[in-house]
Structure formats: C-alpha cells, structure tokens
C-alpha cells in the first residue's frame, strides 16, 4: 500500500538477504520485523542459550525455553511469522576464523551484539566485504544507532578508533537495561535495513542517533570519515581480521594470586583475619554479598586506598572475577603485600559454597 515501496520494493525485499548477529534484546525485534516485512533470507548468528535474566527484554523467550539455544527458538518464531522466509541459523560465536565465511552469504549485516570485540570484528569484516553494518548499542536508559558503510561514509573505527579500557565496560547484565529500550533500538535497526534493501529514504550513514528513554529525546551527531582510519582509510594497515579480544584487552593474564571459593570458606571457618573487598557497584552489593565484606567499587579504589591497610590479608571479589583481578593487580602494584583474587567471583561462591544466595 505504500507507494514508496509498492510491488517493486516488496520484490527487492524478497530477493534480499540479511544476517542478524546476536539473538538477544536487539536481535529479536530486528529479525521479527524483517521477517514480517518479507525479507527473502535471514541468517541468525548466536551461540548463547536462553537464561532467566533474558526474559524481561528478550520477549519471544519464555521460561519453557530456558536452556535452549537462542537461534533455535528465534528461528522457529521467524518461520511461524512468515513461512515464506528462508531462515538459516548459525549456532556459533562469530570470530576471526569464521566471520568472513558466515557474513559472505548476506547483503546486509545487522550488529545486535553487546561487546566491543564483536563490534570491531563485524565492522572490519563489513569493510573488507564492502557491506553495510547496521549498528546499535544499549546501556541502562540510553541507546545509539548508526549505519557504518565504508563505501559511502565512515566505519565504526572512524567513530571509535580505540576500545575503552576493559575495566570501565559494564554489560547489560551488570549495569542493567530498561526492558523496552532494546525493542526501540532493534526496531530502528530493522527500519534502516529495510530502507537499504528497498532503496528508499535516508540512511544513518555518517550520523549517530542518540536516544534517551529517560526524557524520550532523540539527538544526532555527525560522524565524519577518518582519513587515517586503519581499516577504511586510503592506506589501510588492517587488511585482514585480527585477534579482537586481544585488541580490546579482554584476553589478558593478571599477575595476581587466586583463591578458590572453597578455600576462602575454609579460611573463614578457621578464623583467619581477612579483609573481604567487594569491588562491584552498590546495586550489585545490595543483591548479594559475602558476610563481612567491605564495598569499594573499582572506580573509587584509587582515591579510597587510605581505607585499606597495606599489611591486611585482602581477598578481592566481584561478580565473575575479572574486575577483582584488575583490582588485585592494582593493589599489588601500590605496595599491598597480601592480595588474592576470588576465582570466579561471587557467582562461583554461590554455586560452590552458598547455593541459597541470590544470583544475578
């Protein structure tokens, strides 16, 4: 019925292909709307399973799906929405060894991932294959979206030349996200994909759309192509996919002593004088904590060093053991002589020592 689409546009959609990387909060609305619109072939890439914490924002999943592969559940839903769409599921983690092969079969890539290594990987693969990368990210109450297409404008690296320090990055599982936010941003990604495939309207190439669910405002920032971009510039230095975990500082060994949850429990039962240092955020501490621990969020640690004794026997913990490892390494470098990291964090403590502890 839309004259800007018509039979010509519908046929273009039928002959188009799109791959959704990430079957979570963003990928669900993006893929469902694209299937309903009649896109001929849709790929879904994800290696995760449905968890209880997903359900408030990943609305096609239910408690009966817990433990099932997300690509299987989402694939079934897309086929039920539109049986004339060819749906291909890729139950794998996209990485440097498979990204070019997986993405090669699709015209448009929709980045619905939630981490920096994946975003840089998808960007570089799209640049190398000259494809549009429809991007979105969400955090708490805020979202952003753009289309990175090096053939017509800037790429993701033009906007973010370097990733942030890993210790400053919080996932939605840790920081929280308003449940409706990924629905809004994923729908924007679907709209951009439809515009590109139909050849109608103006894309977000060269524009970063910013949305706040707090005050319901949309703002826009212009993004220019970086002449010195190492992947899409005139003299690129990145001509093949690299190790993105290493590039983002994820794969890094910490020079700290580790302590298992069971060993910590034994020390506590034996009456050892320990300082249990919780470096999570206050809202995490409210959910659960180990009795007697002291809360100093990792971002406040440097200015609050005076609250710790340099000879204290310190055991640092966080959610899964990564932030605490960085904190333990930091304390050791500042002259603290007895610092250990709780392996696996409070999640491992709940699994191995205190099964009744609330989890998140």
Task: Tell me what you see in this structure.
The protein is α/β, with parallel strands linked by helices and 360 residues long. It folds into 2 domains: 242 residues, Rossmann fold (3-Layer(aba) Sandwich), CATH 3.40.50; 96 residues, Rhodanese-like domain (Oxidized Rhodanese, domain 1, 3-Layer(aba) Sandwich), CATH 3.40.250. The chain is built from 13 helices and 13 strands. The protein starts with 5 loop residues before the first helix and ends in an 8-residue tail after the last helix.
Task: Produce the secondary structure layout.
Blueprint: H1 6-14, E1 17-21, H2 27-37, E2 41-45, H3 70-81, E3 86-90, H4 99-103, E4 108-111, H5 116-129, E5 133-139, E6 142-148, H6 156-159, H7 172-175, H8 181-198, E7 207-212, E8 217-222, H9 244-247, E9 257-259, H10 261-269, E10 275-278, H11 282-287, E11 294-295, E12 313-317, H12 322-333, E13 338-342, H13 345-352
Parallel strand pairs: 1-2, 1-4, 2-3, 4-5, 9-13, 10-11, 10-12, 12-13
Antiparallel strand pairs: 5-6, 6-7, 7-8
Helix pairs in contact: 2-3, 2-8
Main sheet summary: 8 strands, mixed
Read across the widest sheet, the strand sequence of neighbours is: 3-2-1-4-5-6-7-8
Derived structural class: alpha/beta
Low-confidence stretches: none
Number of helices: 13
| Rg over alpha carbons | 23 Å
Order of helices and strands: HEHEHEHEHEEHHHEEHEHEHEEHEH
Beta-strand residue percentage? 15-25%
Question: Which CATH first-tier class of the largest domain would you pick?
Answer: Alpha Beta
Terminus-to-terminus distance: 46 Å
